Amino acid sequence: MKILKENAGPLTNFEVVDFLRSRGAANDPTRVLAPLAPSEFKVYDYLVSTPACSQTRVSIAEFATKCKPYKLTKSEITNIINIRPSSFVEIDPLIENLESRLGESVEEVVELVVQLFSPPENQSNLMNESNELEDIM
Hints:
The chain contains eight helices and no strands. It has helices at residues 13-22, 38-48, 57-66, 74-83, 88-91, 98-102, 106-116, 121-136. The N and C termini lie far apart (59 Å).
């Protein structure tokens, strides 16, 4: 394999999962046949349980395009994609000088995240369980 561009920038969790899948991490349940180190399998196992497993290249590219008017840095966009904040409280630590840079547009960014990235499975399961508990009470 030839390295085209060394240290091209930070990767999203989706890109890491995609890379590990391309190397056979998803196809080897025995963890013996794929040419991966044990640490790579551990990273893969962790990332599969995060929101990265349900993201797509299209949704990530669309999010990056729609964030251009907000003048977010690449690292801020990467952090938002990886963490997938769904409220002001969650997005506040991800963007430097949030109030002065975005002002009222913060809610628009949060809505964009919620719109383009479906909620993670464990979060939707928790929401379903809480709704069931409310129905019981």
